[in-house]
Every structure is written in structure tokens, then in C-alpha cells.
Amino acid sequence: MIKPLGDRVVIEALAKEEVTKSGIVLPDTVKEKPQEGKVVAVGTGRTLENGQKVALDVTVGDKIIFSKYAGTEVKVEGKEYLIISERDILAVIE
Amino acid sequence: MIKPLGDRVVIEALAKEEVTKSGIVLPDTVKEKPQEGKVVAVGTGRTLENGQKVALDVTVGDKIIFSKYAGTEVKVEGKEYLIISERDILAVIE
Amino acid sequence: MIKPLGDRVVIEALAKEEVTKSGIVLPDTVKEKPQEGKVVAVGTGRTLENGQKVALDVTVGDKIIFSKYAGTEVKVEGKEYLIISERDILAVIE
Amino acid sequence: MIKPLGDRVVIEALAKEEVTKSGIVLPDTVKEKPQEGKVVAVGTGRTLENGQKVALDVTVGDKIIFSKYAGTEVKVEGKEYLIISERDILAVIE
Amino acid sequence: MIKPLGDRVVIEALAKEEVTKSGIVLPDTVKEKPQEGKVVAVGTGRTLENGQKVALDVTVGDKIIFSKYAGTEVKVEGKEYLIISERDILAVIE
Amino acid sequence: MIKPLGDRVVIEALAKEEVTKSGIVLPDTVKEKPQEGKVVAVGTGRTLENGQKVALDVTVGDKIIFSKYAGTEVKVEGKEYLIISERDILAVIE
Amino acid sequence: MIKPLGDRVVIEALAKEEVTKSGIVLPDTVKEKPQEGKVVAVGTGRTLENGQKVALDVTVGDKIIFSKYAGTEVKVEGKEYLIISERDILAVIE
């Protein structure tokens, strides 16, 4: 199990089948990086300069939109994840 | 539904029919990026370093002017939105 | 009406007839950007890190000097304005 | 009258007749920018993050040394001034 | 023994045998830098601007994922370690 | 008299006769900038964000070592000085 | 005697005889900068934004590892030292 530190969140990217306007399915290499993901683990929060800890605004299971290119890709037990800071999460989709 | 995080705001860009001085309607690709939009969702606010949460100064329905090129374009349920930080909102038009 | 956010100010640039040393009136494109303007609207102020709101030092009607190239040009109801941060205002002319 | 904002100061540059080692008086264009000036107006001070206002350490009439190239040149009623931040003032000459 | 200062952590990189898709074991020089390590020593924590000391979120023995290229490689008593800041630790693997 | 502002210090550079390994005295132009000086005036201190004033750690007469290239050279009453910030002073030599 | 200011530390670099894998002793010019040193003097500490002074975590005599290229080389009474900030000290070796 991956336990992210501080204000970090572990994300599983959501696959999208991408079809161009002319109807051709693109191979992986020309696809854009995904912008949507599902939160699989959250850190304990960010520590403010007065010592107070602020819990994250997302929870496990949330479907989120995050900044393209944000975060670091990691592979744990053969599965790929993205670890990003909460500040790179733009919104939750409900 | 998109629920933006922190000091972020979801915006629907307002279309303008753009006509050049010589009267020719320009196709999409040469148009300038819009600078006006309508707020469709707002985050819960910005957290100060003393832990206090500051609510945003805009509310859903506000017509706003925002910095060109600010924010991230997202597509949710086939519709395009822009997610921007409140600091990139210059003014509200009343 | 434009209502600027936070520490922003809406300015109407003051026109100057510019004459070069040799006496030729320059067309618009080679003129320098104006450095003087009149405040037409002010934001509610800047929020400090302790949550306190600081009112702006300029008020509507003030004639000001501001940093060249500062701010964003906007066009509202056919009229051109400049939206700048208070920190780009150098002085008030009385 | 120019009333500078915040921690800004209005300065009148002090002219120096510059003579090179070989005794030739240089024309204006090759002279170095002046580093000395006289304070003609001071702002109300800098606002700290706790909301406290700190008065400036210089007063009208002070002869000062300031960083080369600092500030913005302005022309008010035909006279040239420099508006600089107090942090660009290095010292007062008594 | 190495005793890291402040928010720093000493890490022993975990070796992985890297095999390309075509099954060829790569020599050291073309391998990627490791992203996993084991914590062998931790600092006393980060000092906040209010003087409070915040203990680290990792402890000796933790298996961690850290940002590629972060930290400084050191060699102590013939053994190689990496000294990194806690902010470059992304997650703990349990 | 020069009275430096805030955390600034006025320094008189200490001359060193520089001799290369081969014994040739170098002319001024190829010498390194001096790194040692004597404090001739100190500012009233640095203002912290809580409004508190912190007195400088050096006093008039101290022989100091400072960062190469730090500060601004000024000439007052025909004499050359260097005005530097206290943070560019590395150490006092006793 | 050198008395460093604030959070600075004076270090005496520890010499290492460097031998390449093929057994050739390298001349000085191609050696790496040393990463180990012995603390010979420490400053009085860092001043936080609330005015509190934080003592350094190293003391005279400590053998330390520091960031390559950090600090400023000085020569006092014919001996070479390095003056670095405490934040560039990675660890103490015990």
C-alpha cells in the first residue's frame, strides 16, 4: 500500500478511449496525458507556518481533474500511479 | 457537476462574434482567447497561513473579466470549461 | 459597471497630445504608453495573511501615475480601461 | 503635487558636473545615471503582514544615495522626478 | 554514523534488476536513477517561523518513494547514501 | 557623514598588496575585488514582519569579511565606500 | 579569529587522497571539491520572523558533510576556510 506524505495524493489515471474527429483511434504515444483520475490514497495534510495541520479537501474514491503534467509517475506492485500535490488538483467531479 | 478546490473557480467562456475592421468574420483559429466568462462554480476559499479560510469574492452567475491565458481548459460531459484561480479574475461586470 | 477584485483598480488612461522635438504630431502607434490615468473604480482591498483586509490608498476620481506596461487592457461597453494592481500605482497627483 | 503611495519616495536627482580624468566635460548622453538625490515627497509607509504600518526612515529634504537604475522616471508639470521604493535608498548623507 | 540535519533524511537506495521489454539486462550506466529507498537516519525536524519544531513523518526503516534526481549522493565508510529533504519524499510503501 | 538605512552597513575596503606566485605585483585592474573591510557606519536594523526591529550584529570599527561583488560602490567627499546589506557580511575578524 | 554571523559556520575542509579506479593519484586541478569538513566556528543563530533566535544544530569540532559548491572560500592568516550557511550542511558524521 502507498501512503502519501503531507499534502500529497495518490491517483489512478482514468483511461479514456480517444477518437479523433475523423474517427481513427489513436495509439498511446500520440494521446494527450490524462487529466482525470481517481484518488486512491491521501496524505495527512499540509502543515501551516503556525504548526496547524490542514486536512486535504479530497478523499479516497473522489473522481478528480488535475493539471496536465503535474506529479510524478510511480509503479508499485506492477501498477502505475501518479503522486501529486493537492494544489495540482483543480476540481472534483460529482 | 464540477466542484472546484480551494480558491478555484469554474468558468464558462462567453462567446463574442468577432468582426475585423474590414468586416470579415474571423474563423475560430485566429480569434483571441476570450477574456469574459460566467462563473458556474466556486471553491470553498483560500486557506491563510493562520489556518483561517477566506471565502471567494465572486459567486455563481457573476459575469467576470479574467486574465488572458490564465487557467486550464477542461471538458466535462462534452462541455468546455475553464478552471482558474480567483487571483486571475480581474473584475466583475454588473 | 466594472467592479475590480481585491487590490485592483480600474483606470481610464489620460490622453496626451504628443509632439516630438521637431514639432511633428506622432500617430498613435509610435506613442509611448500613457503613464497617467484617472481611477474609475477600486477593489475592496488586499487580504493580509492574518485575515485582515487593508483598504486601498486611492479613491475614485484620483489622478494617478502608474508603472508603464503594468496591468491588463479591457474593453467594456465600447470603452477602453486598464485594470492594474494597487502596487503598480506609484503616486497620486493633487 | 505628487503624493507617492506606500513605501515610495519622490526624488529630485542632484546634478553633478562630470569631468573625466583627461579633463573633458562629458555631454549628457554618456554620463552615468545619478546616484544622489533630494527627497521631495514620501509615502505613508509600508504595511506589514500583521496590518501594522511602518513609517519611512527618510523625510522631505533628506539628501540620499540610491541604487543606480532603481525607480521610474516621471515628468510632472514639466519637471523630472524619480519615484523609488524606500528599499532602493542606500543611505542618507548628512 | 550519519546524523542528518533539520528536515533531512539519509536513504539507502533499493537496487532493482532492470530488464527491458526485449529481455536484455541493462548495464548500470543506462539505468534510470532509483526512485525507491530505505530510510537509515532522520533529522530532528523542520523549524517553523514561529520557532516550533515539526518532527518528520518518516522513521528509520521506512521504505519510501522519492522524487527522481532529488538529494545529494554521499559516500560514508565506503557505502553510498542519498541525503534528501523530507519534501522530496512522495510516499511510504507499507 | 553617510547614515545607511535599515540593515545596511557602510564599509571601507581594506587594501592588500597582491603578489602573484611568480612575485610580480599586479596593477589594480587585474586584482580581485577586496573581501575584507572595516565598518564605518551601520543602519538602525532590519524590521521583521511583526514590526520588531532587529539591531545589526556588527558595529563601527569591526573588521569584516563580506561576499565578493556584494553591495554598491559610492563616492562621498572624494572617498570610496561600499554599502552592503548585513546578510552579505560573512564574518567578523577579531 | 573568525566569528561568523547569523546562521553561518566556518569550516576547515578535510583533505582526502583521491585515487581513481585505475590507481592513478589525480593532481589537484581535476579533483572534486571536498564534501567533508570540520566546524571551526559557528554563528549566533538564525533570527525567525517573530524575533526569536534559533541556535545552530552544529558545534565546533563536528565533522560534517556539506553541499558541493556551497559557501565562500576565505583566507585568514594564510589558512583557507569555507564560510557556509547552516542550511548547506547536510549531516554530521559521528
TrEMBL record, chains A, B, C, D, E, F, G:
Q: GO CC annotations?
A: cytoplasm
Which range is the signal sequence, renumbered to this chain?
none
Source domain of life: Bacteria
What is its subcellular localisation?
A: Cytoplasm
Q: Which InterPro entries match?
A: Chaperonin_GroES (IPR020818), Chaperonin_GroES_sf (IPR037124), Chaprnonin_Cpn10_CS (IPR018369), GroES-like_sf (IPR011032)
**Keyword tags:** Chaperone, Cytoplasm
The GO terms this record gives for MF are: ATP binding; metal ion binding; protein folding chaperone; protein-folding chaperone binding; unfolded protein binding
Query: Is the keyword Chaperone assigned to this protein?
Result: yes
Question: What do we know about how this protein assembles, alone or with others?
Answer: Heptamer of 7 subunits arranged in a ring. Interacts with the chaperonin GroEL.
Q: Explain the purpose of this protein.
A: Together with the chaperonin GroEL, plays an essential role in assisting protein folding. The GroEL-GroES system forms a nano-cage that allows encapsulation of the non-native substrate proteins and provides a physical environment optimized to promote and accelerate protein folding. GroES binds to the apical surface of the GroEL ring, thereby capping the opening of the GroEL channel.
Indicate the family of this protein.
Answer: Belongs to the GroES chaperonin family.
Q: Which PANTHER family match?
A: 10 KDA HEAT SHOCK PROTEIN, CO-CHAPERONIN GROES
Name recorded for this polypeptide: Co-chaperonin GroES
Please tell me the species this chain comes from: Sporomusa malonica
